[in-house]
Amino acid sequence: MTTAALSPAVPKPAHVADAVVYDFDMFQDPAYVADPHRRVLDMVKHAPPVFWTPRNGGHWMLVSHEANFVASRDVEAFSNGFATPAELSAIQLRMPPGTPHIPFPLPINIDPPDHGKYRLPLQRVFSPKTINELKDSIRVLAGELIDKVAAQGHCEFMAAVAEPLPVVVFLKMLGLPVSRMEEYRALVAEHMSDPTPDPMDSIKKLWKITALLRDDVLLRKDNPQDDIISMLWKAEIDGKPTTLDDMENYMVLLFLAGLDTVMNGIGHGIRHFATDLALQDELRKSPEQVGDASEEMLRRYTFTVPPRFVKKDMEFMGLQMKRGERAMLFLPAADLDPKVFPNPDTYDLKRENKTHIAFNAGPHRCLGSHLARVELQIVYEEMLARLPRFRLDPAKPPTFHCGHVVGVSTLNLVWQA
To answer: Residue 206 and residue 181: Cα distance in Å, rounded?
Structure first.
């Protein structure tokens, strides 16, 4: 492999010490794209616990568990918003008359105290009680998808199971037509494809999402159904009725997060099962251990890299950071930190400490974590129950994509039909 695809390196800022510069492109690093978590393990051993990379415009990478845990909880130092609501309002005012509302993914792109009032209406939707009521329908769908390919003796798992299962589940929860799944997924992929997005380009992509969803959103206002869109129309934000602007803010968040993230976790987990036949055998004999197996899988193959924005000039972990700089919460590395997880490269079903931060920590901890856990566990249970030992297809090795979500692009499996 060559480094031809790497983004251009930018000059190091004067306040960044030479000792903490580490050349890493989180979108195109060749070793990372070839096998993400193997590269992460190498970085945990050889890169500084917090480093600055000149790639993708230059930014910080938080590698150690301590750095990630502290930063994710300190919203006074590390903001989750690329712009404040006031700054977005100022941008809106500078736009020509008649320019559509600029959607602002909420509550993820806003910090406390305002964060809480926008998160509250979503709490009931993603509560354990609500998600548990979906278990039977998720299991039926998983079984149907697996049974479609069982007699073939092989499949490309991401397209056959990992993608359609969580996407169909979430589209039904939102109240959007499943028949448009491919169109929706293409829009999500487009939004996430640019490692250094221009703010105006990002706004244009968000407008495409809101335009695509507007008819369905407005329909639910006057004709409510049993879905998330209808529920949000009935909600209040800080004591005020939900507006169309509020709905667009919610929808861009739910659309982008709900239609992409979980399938990547499913892919990493099934890839590991395909390389660990002894684990398959043990869990078929003792399916009650699948919950523990899933938690260790989340730790071993954590797959999200949330961005943060430095809010002030400060010292963090002994390093000087400047207001406006970007810092990536490198959660895949945090969960492979040997100071917290002995022998972190080892998948250990009996590991005592499985308290990972795959779903982040602090006020921005993933709202959909319970849904993700349910979907992961059910897929693992149904794959083990409905298929014999499955392996990686030696003729078609897995491929990956990297960035803010580290995922499996293709995963070809074979088994005895």
So the answer is: 18
Task: Find the CATH number of the domain harbouring 318.
Answer: 1.10.630.10
Half-sphere exposure of 390 (CA within 13 A, CB side): 29
User: DSSP assignment of 362-389, as one string?
Assistant: GGG--TTHHHHHHHHHHHHHHHHHHSS-
Nearest alpha-carbon partner for 122 in 368, 343, 301:
368
Instruction: Quote the CA–CA distance of 289 and 350 in Å, as a whole number.
Output: 10
Task: Determine, yes or no, domain membership for 403.
Answer: yes
CB burial of residue 86 (10 Å; 0-12, 13-18, 19+)? exposed
Range of the domain at 107: 18-415
Per-residue pLDDT of the chain (417 residues), as tens digits, is: 344 489 999 999 999 999 999 999 999 999 999 999 999 999 999 999 999 999 999 999 999 999 999 999 999 999 987 666 677 677 778 888 888 888 888 888 888 888 888 899 998 888 898 899 999 999 999 999 999 999 999 999 999 999 999 999 999 999 999 999 999 888 888 877 666 666 777 788 889 999 999 999 999 999 999 999 999 999 999 899 999 999 999 999 898 888 888 999 999 999 999 999 999 999 999 999 999 999 999 999 999 999 999 999 999 999 999 999 999 999 999 999 999 999 999 999 999 988 999 999 999 999 999 999 999 999 999 999 999 999 999 999 999 999 999 999 999 999 998
Q: Cα–Cα distance between 86 and 337 in angstroms, integer?
A: 38
Number of H helices and number of E strands within the chain?
Answer: 18, 14
Tokens of 155: 């499949």
Bridge partners (DSSP) listed for residue 326: 309
Residue 217, domain member (yes or no): yes
Total domains present in the chain: 1
In a domain, 215, yes or no: yes
Buried b (16+ CB within 10 A) or exposed e, 305-324: bbebbbbeeeebeebebeee
**Amino acid found at 101:** H
Closest C-alpha to 160, from 415, 412, 417, 362: 412
Using CA atoms, how far residue 176 sits from 127, 164, 184, 227, in Å, is 21, 14, 10, 9
Contact (Cβ atoms closer than 8 angstroms) between residue 178 and residue 168: yes
Q: How far apart are CA 356 and CA 358, in angstroms?
A: 6
